[in-house]
Amino acid sequence: MHLLALETSCDETAVALYGQHGLEDHLVHSQTDVHARYGGVVPELASRDHGRHLLPLVEKLLVRAGLAPGSLSALAVTLGPGLPGALHVGQAFGQGLAYALGIPLIGIHHLEAHLFSAGLGPEPPDLPFVALLVSGGHSELVRVDGLGCYTLLGATRDDAAGEAFDKVAQLLGLPYPGGPELAALAETGQPERFRLPRPMLDQPGCEMSFSGLKTAVLRALRQIETPTGRDRADLAAAFEIAVVEVLVEKSWRALAETGGSRLVVAGGVSANRRLRDALGARAAGTAVRVFFPPLEFCTDNAAMVAHVAWLRWQAGERSLAGGSVRTRWPLESLRPPRFNPDP
């Protein structure tokens, strides 16, 4: 039994194979070079690049696994949230291949895949757990009671943490993609030089905000007549620490609110070293355990899509139509898998 998964929600074209013993193989084609000259993702270019690379990636994956297309038992595709054109490329390809092979097509929520991406690691977390989803498009705290059983505890009111990283990186004149570049620069900085705000830290609950922090960085830059490399490094470090402090404190509030002791951190920002270190330090000597996906599965990938699709498929979920693309799709609107007889 082999399940093929496709991921085309934004600017990574990814494919993965999953079987009874777990993840078998996966491939990712990054579009960084395509979008670098524009300083961000251009949706139309992303869609075209998915169209060029999806079939060759699938063919390469099957050759590496020694499988013929007819050996596939099911197919999964990300249906949202994401860029509409990019999602439609994956959906159309998946629908056509699933129809030609006569196999089920399972539509997957991109954030649900992130929620369970820690399951690809050596120590999958037990349920229930609290999840901190932090990426370029999302910053949410979610209680996870089971597959399809989610309660939103808090989210950002404006910019996501990853989006703030990218925008501040642009202010500092760093190349695209900005988030990793800013984190690398922050390693060399002295954060205590700049005192930046911790948005909404003095307010109860799990809501977050990062737009004001971005504005504070801009104001600090404008107060420096000619910013040097040292100025930029110190400001990057101060910004990164401010974001990390907010994420750590809000995560612990979510754990206290739910009475939980397991925290899963997922999404592109979960690869940030300072965030990982700060969460580990906060959990040290307590009953709280913190789980992360392996680094290669923090950013968008098809392995996590395959993993959650396998869980749903094994629970009896079947759909040849696979649903429709949804650019906006509240995570809490999902439901547990339902058995649908094979057509």
Pick out the low-confidence regions. none
Q: Count the strands?
A: 10
Shape verdict: globular
Q: Would you list the SSEs in sequence order as H and E?
A: EEEHHEHEHEEEHHHHEHEH
Counting helices, strands and paired strands, the structural category is: alpha/beta
Helicity range: 25-40%
Task: Provide the residue-averaged pLDDT.
Answer: 94
Strand ordering within the main sheet: 3-2-1-4-5
Number of domains: 2
Rg (C-alpha, Å)? 20 Å
CATH C-level class of the largest domain is Alpha Beta
CATH topology of the largest domain: Nucleotidyltransferase, domain 5
CATH superfamily of the largest domain: ATPase, nucleotide binding domain
Structural notes for this entry:
- With 343 residues, the protein is α/β, with parallel strands linked by helices.
- It contains 10 helices and 10 strands.
- The protein has helices at residues 32-35, 43-65, 84-101, 110-115, 161-171, 178-186, 211-222, 229-258, 273-283, 302-314; strands spanning 2-7, 12-19, 22-30, 74-80, 105-109, 129-134, 139-146, 149-155, 262-266, 289-291.
- A hairpin with a 4-residue loop joins strand 6 (129-134) and strand 7 (139-146).
- It is globular and about 65 Å long.
How would the blueprint of this fold be written?
Elements: E1 2-7, E2 12-19, E3 22-30, H1 32-35, H2 43-65, E4 74-80, H3 84-101, E5 105-109, H4 110-115, E6 129-134, E7 139-146, E8 149-155, H5 161-171, H6 178-186, H7 211-222, H8 229-258, E9 262-266, H9 273-283, E10 289-291, H10 302-314
Helix pairs in contact: 2-3, 5-6, 5-7, 5-8, 6-8, 7-8, 8-9
